[in-house]
Here is the input.
Amino acid sequence: MSPPEGRNVKQKAGYFGLAAGWVERCAGTRHQWGYEESLAMLSRSCLVGLALLVLEGALGGAAYAEECPAKSTSMDDVIAVLNAAPGCGPAMKLFEACAYGASGDVQFGEVVEKKCEADFVGQQKPPQKLSYQRELQACDRKYRNKSGTMYISATASCRAEVAQRYSQQALKAAGQKAR
Here is the structure.
């Protein structure tokens, strides 16, 4: 079967199916969309960006994480700030603000775990202790086969979050406000 007369058999070089229009537009040629449509799309993108800036200004920067109050980013200074925290919740907020996103977060996470465990470890019954240990082990397994220090940090964060959750549950059961 031959193609209709006047038709090419081979596709033109650079044809990528549906993406062809995009490639040609990016190359500066006029294709399916005219310049007016491209300008309208650019205008919409600018409006969206402007709206996001206005929204961020209205929130007063609340969308950004809290800044670490430690004297410096040295591990000793951060650990000192975490140890000085009045309870589990504030320690967790400091951990999130001061975390390196690397393997150094293991030490920070351990401080938070100990702060939080102080609220519930002596009061747990054997099934609760077992449940807590299993959740910590689940955090350890979650990123076990991943390489990179950010996964070590993620494990430390997961363990701290588990400890914080158990602390909140224990304080709630005791009728105290989570600290």
About this structure: The chain has seven helices and no strands. The radius of gyration is 28 Å.
